[in-house]
Amino acid sequence: MKNGKNPTLRQKMVIKDAGFNPDNWLVCKSPTDELHLVHRFTSSTKIIHL
Fold this sequence. Notes:
Layout lengths: L8 H9 L7 E5 L4 E6 L5 E5 L1
């Protein structure tokens, strides 16, 4: 699996609006209408639709 990257400020706001703590999530992919997130510690994945 690819390594996640730190989210940008706009991505952090989207993650927070979805109810997650942006400090614990990394962005794996960023297609135009989704964010693919990977948890820093547990490596679980989530997809947020924008």
